[in-house]
Specification:
Radius of gyration: 45 Å
Strand order of the largest sheet: 2-3-4-5-9-10
Helix content: 55-70%
Number of strands: 10
Oligomer: single chain
Length: about 550
């Protein structure tokens, strides 16, 4: 049996040697006609392509910045533009609360006026009063007023006034003054603390909604940043796979060149091997470019910039996939998501906000019915110094009590607003159902992705191991001369594909874990990230706000 195998190999080597000799003669004959000599083609230096790719990438790559996954997350929290932008919604909502309390700010007003009149005496004044000249009068009025309303809707108005009058008829100056206090209490529309505090409570709900929206942005952004980090890790590992593929192709070139030297291989085998090497070199350059693209995606998410442009530094991830097994439970994940997802909480808050608006518009349907009470004291003196004493002594006093009411015929505006608030609440209730459906769908999709990724990791690992053995076997067969370089190239390509698929499966598994944590709304808790609402220094004081020179 051994002699039979040995004789068979000798025959195969003899046939191959004869084919090589014939091929050399054929190639030599075509050289005379001006066609390309295959042996000259074999002298092409394939290292030039790799050096070109390296030189281009070196111009695009800066200093290495080693970065862990935790550092990546921290940078995203501080620098991500989407997170920074969403933070302003919270600050704006906080100003709405301050503005809502402004409805209870009292208003103080004052008025100072002086009138000087001169007119000729009327015929009656001339006939009965004996006035023949002009009649003069001067009137100076001072008024200070304070008004506003409190949280149960009571409107108050305190009016302090004084008047100085003199002229032809009065002779000496006469001073008159006093105060009047008026209280107006709504009895139907606008009555009660609940109604008058609705605007403030609605603004507070708006602030809570903005907080939930910020958490949604943070949750999604951190998730995308982590996935971008793993994507960068994957592209770097893919470069290693492509380098191994190139090494395998170079080893094949070495084997075929040795076989060509001893006459056991045709020149076309070497040519095929070198063509495979050129292809692997192209794949290597493409893999390097993919790293740069993945870096830019990560830099954009974590805000790694140099001024207004991306930092030229190269991010070097220090963490690698850990392949932690995740115990999943679909029903538990759905329940967790419905409790934790900010979108659900935001929709529930919008319904509560709709309830407040419904309460307000229901109150607006009522007729306007107000109770009014007024009291005042006054005095009239010839001396300004005696006027306050006269007011205090109640030289003159007056009070009144009454009731007033009104209702628009048809009341269409109030009825329309109330109906609109009902529709708005129903719309928000439907939005909540939509959010719940979206959350459930995202959880189901994430769980399926996690399960399939876990299976694919193991299946691709086994495929890669088998392909490694297959490549080793084919290269051994090539050394024995029982296979061709093309078959070895195809086998090596299958190995590269298996390695790439295994790598992609590992990266996708890490992404699937993040997708599930985002879908459940537990990612920030897993990372020990506590949400802190953005703070703003509301430094504009009352005196600054009324200063005409402010900002000049």
């Amino acid at each position: 049996m051994k002699s039979y195998v040995l004789s068979t190999l000798l025959v195969f080597v003899g046939i191959s040697t004869g084919l090589v000799a014939q091929e050399k003669d054929s190639i030599s004959s075509t050289t005379d006609t001006g066609e390309i000599n295959i042996f000259e083609t074999l002298k092409i230096n394939l290292d030039d392509l790799e050096q070109l790719g390296k030189s281009v990438n070196q111009r695009l790559i800066g200093e290495n910045v080693r970065m862990s996954l935790e550092e990546c997350v921290q940078m995203a929290l501080i620098n991500n533009q989407d997170i920074l932008i969403s933070g302003f919604d919270s600050l704006i909502s906080r100003t709405d609360i301050t503005g809502a309390y402004g409805q209870f700010d009292p208003t103080i007003s004052f008025n100072l006026s002086h009138a000087d009149n001169t007119s000729p005496a009327s015929p009656l004044q001339s006939a009965f009063g004996g006035f023949t000249g002009d009649i003069e009068s001067q009137n100076t009025n001072y008024q200070l007023r304070l008004n506003g309303k409190n949280q149960i809707g009571t409107q108050y108005d305190v009016d302090l006034s004084s008047n100085r009058e003199n002229g032809t008829f009065s002779g000496d100056a006469i001073y008159a003054g006093g105060f009047t206090t008026t209280l107006t209490q709504p009895l139907l529309k606008g009555f009660g603390r609940d109604v008058n505090m609705i605007q403030i409570r609605s603004a507070e709900k708006g602030l809570e909604i903005s907080h939930q929206q910020i958490q949604t942005t943070i949750l999604n952004t951190i998730g995308e940043s982590i996935k971008a980090y793993w994507e960068l890790v994957g592209t770097i590992e893919n470069l290693r796979v492509r380098q191994e593929a190139l090494d395998n192709a170079n080893r094949l070139v070495t084997i075929t060149e040795k076989r060509l030297e001893i006459g056991s291989a045709a020149a076309i085998e070497v040519l095929r091997a070198k063509a495979g090497t050129a292809t692997r070199l192209s794949d290597l350059v493409t893999a390097r470019t993919a790293i740069l693209d993945a870096e830019d995606q990560l830099k954009n998410l974590i805000g790694l910039q140099d001024g207004d442009i991306f930092s030229p530094d190269s991010v070097v991830p220090t963490d690698r996939p850990r392949m932690v097994n995740v115990d999943w439970d679909l029903d538990k994940s759905i329940d967790t998501a419905l409790k934790n997802r900010p979108e659900i909480k935001s929709s529930e808050l919008q319904i509560e906000q709709s309830d407040l608006e419904l309460e307000r518009t229901k109150n607006e349907l009522l007729p306007q019915l107000d109770g009014v009470i007024s009291y005042g004291q006054s005095s009239q003196k010839l001396s300004l110094d005696n006027l306050p004493h006269g007011v205090k002594s109640q030289d003159g006093k007056a009070w009144s009590v009454g009731i007033s009411g009104s209702i628009p015929i048809g009341n269409r505006a109030a009825r329309s607003n109330h109906h609109r608030s009902k529709l708005s609440k129903r719309q928000n209730q439907q939005r909540l159902k939509k959010s719940q459906q979206d959350v459930v769908l995202s959880v189901r999709t994430a769980v399926r992705g996690l399960v399939s990724s876990e299976i694919l990791v193991e299946s691709n690992r086994q495929a890669r191991i088998l392909q490694e053995a297959n490549v080793a076997a084919e290269e051994k067969r090539l050394e024995l001369g029982v296979t061709t370089s093309q078959i070895v190239l195809d086998t090596q390509e299958d190995l590269t594909s298996a390695q790439t698929e295994e790598l992609r499966a590992i990266v996708n598994y890490e992404k699937a874990i993040i997708d599930l944590q985002v879908a459940e709304g537990t990612l920030l808790e897993e990372l020990n990230i506590e949400f802190m609402p953005p703070e703003d220094d509301f430094s504009l004081t009352f005196l600054q706000s009324i200063n005409p020179a402010r900002g000049m």
